[in-house]
Amino acid sequence: MNLKKDFFVGTCFCMFLFLFSVNAQRKKNKETYEPKKIIYDNHIYEPYIRSVQLYPSSLMNKSIQASTFPPIVNLQDNQPLLLEFDCLNPEYQNFRVKIFHCDAEWTPSVLNEIEYLPEYNDFPINDYRNSFATKISYNHFAFELPPVKISGNYIVMVYKNRNEDDIMLTRKFMVFQNRVNVGGRVSFPNNAQRRLTHQQVNFGINYGNYEVIDPKQDLKILIRQNFRDDKLTKPLKPFMVDTYNRKLDFQFYDNENQFEGGNEFRMFDGRSTQQKLVNISKIFQGERESVIEIYPEKSQNHLAYVAINDMNGQYVIDNYETHRGDIESDYVRVSFFLRSDSLENKKVYVNGAFNDWKLNERNLMHYVSENQAYEVFVQLKQGIYNYNYVTVDEKGNRSEVDFEGSHSQTENIYEVLVYHRPIGARADALVGYQPPIADSHLLMFR
After folding, report:
1. Model pLDDT, residue 342
2. Which fold has domain 181-261+409-445?
3. How far apart are CA 270 and CA 257, in angstroms?
4. Is the pLDDT of residue 367 over 70?
5. Do domains 181-261+409-445 and 266-404 have the same CATH topology?
6. Which pairs with CB-CB distance under 8 Å and at least 24 residues apart come from 155-158?
7. pTM, entire model
8. Which of 2.40.128, 1.20.120, 3.40.1130, 2.60.40 would CATH assign to domain 266-404?
9. Residue 93 CA: distances (Å) to CA of 122, 124, 370, 441
10. Which of 207, 264, 289, 395, by CA, is between 20 and 30 Å from 273?
11. For residues 129 and 127, what is the distance between their CA atoms, to the nearest angstrom?
12. What are the φ/ψ torsions at residue 97 (nearest 5 degrees)?
C-alpha cells in the first residue's frame, strides 16, 4: 500500500515539474520577442532572416534565372509560386505561413479566408536544409504557396512557433485573370525637354464583353517600372471612352505616363570566393567570413550611354564552383567603394532588389575623407547582383540621377496593371495584366 502511495506521490511530483518547466519555457519564449504588427509590404522583421525570394517556378524545371521574375501568376495557369529564405539563427526554428488578400492599395480586404483559399489558412514549412561547407552556417527554407481561388493582391506572412505575433517576413504577390486586353509601347517623350532623359508608356485598353458600368471611374490603372513598387504611377484615368468599340483611349498632358530612363544597373559577380569574377578586385579569406572588394567606382552622370545587359536591378543566388547556391553559397561581406566629393545635406545609399529597394542603415554609405569616397560593407549571399547608387536630400527626395544619370535609351521593363471591383464583389480583382517583353530599346506589350 505504501508502495502505491509513494508511486502516486512521485508521479504527481514529476507531472508538477513537467508542467512547471513547460510554463517556464512558454514565459521565456514570450519574453524573447515583442508582438509585431504586420506590414502589408515586402518586409523582414528579424535580422537573421536573409535572402528572401518569391517567384513563379516549377519545381520540376527550376533555374537560377527564375528568381529574377516577379511574383505574378495567372489564376488559370496553376503555376506555383516558390518562397525561399535563409535563417542564420542556429537554433531550431518552426516556421508557418499564412496568406492574406488585399485591395488594390495593398490594404487588407474584407474577404473571409474561405473566399480566396481552398483550404485552411495555416501551412507548415517542412522543406529545410542545412548549409554545407560554408563559413557562416544557416538553414535554407523553401515553401510552395498553395493556389488561390480569385485574382488580386496578396501578402504571404511567415511566422514562428505557432505565434502569429512573432512575424519573420512578409512578401507581396499578385494573381491576375485577364478580362480586359492591354496593348501599348514605350517611346520617346512628347515633351522635348525630356526627350533625352525620359521614357513614355503609351497604351490602350479594350474591355470587350467584360461588364464595366463606368470604365472611366471603375477601373484603377497603374504603370510600374522594373517590377519596383517605388517606381509606380498614381492611378491613371482614360482620356476618352469609346463605348461602341468598348475601348479606352489614354492621352496624357502632365507627363503622368513618363519615367526617368535611368541607366543600366551596375553589376558584380560574387559567386566565388576562390577566383575573381566580374568587377571583383580583391578577395580576403577570413577565418569566420570572406570579404570581397568591388573595383572602385565613380559617378556615371553626364557620361554617354553605354548599352549593357543587366537584370534590371535583380539578383540571383548561385555558387560558381558547385551551382548549388541554395545551401552552398556562403554569406560574404561585400565592400562598395564610390569615389566622389562629399555631398552636403545628402545621404548616399547602394541600392537594389537585394535590399527590397529600401534605404536603411544596412545599405547607407559613409564618407571617408582620406579616401575621398563613400564606402559601405554589406553582407550578401554569394551570387550575381545588380545595384546602383542613390542619394536622399534633407526633404527625403530620392535621386538615382546624381550618380547614375538618366537616358531615354536605357532598357527597362514596364507593366500595366488594371484593377476592378466587379458588381456585387467586396474586393478588387486584377483583371488586366500582360507580361512585357523587351525588343532592343523598344518595349512592347503583346
Report:
1. 96
2. Immunoglobulin-like (2.60.40)
3. 36
4. yes
5. yes
6. 155/38, 155/40, 155/99, 155/100, 155/102, 155/106, 156/54, 156/83, 156/97, 156/98, 156/99, 157/38, 157/97, 157/98, 157/99, 157/100, 158/83, 158/85, 158/95, 158/96, 158/97, 158/125
7. 0.88
8. 2.60.40
9. 16, 11, 45, 47
10. 264
11. 7
12. -130, 140
Query: How many of the other CB atoms lie within 10 Å of CB of 6?
Result: 10
Mean pLDDT of 239-261: 89
C-alpha cell at 321: 564552383
Q: Domain 34-176 class?
A: mainly beta
Domain boundaries, the chain: 34-176, 181-261+409-445, 266-404
* Helix ranges (DSSP H) in 267-316: none
How far, in Å, are 75, 233, 431 from residue 207 at the CA level? 19, 21, 10
- Spatial CB neighbours of 338, under 8 Å, sequence gap ≥ 6: 296, 297, 298, 299, 348, 350, 365, 373, 374, 375, 389, 403
For residue 371, the SS3 value is helix
Strands (E), 299-420: 315-317, 331-339, 346-351, 366-368, 373-381, 383-393, 398-399, 414-420
At residue 319, the 3 state secondary structure works out as coil
pLDDT digits (tens, 9 = 90+) for 101-123: 999 999 999 999 999 999 999 99
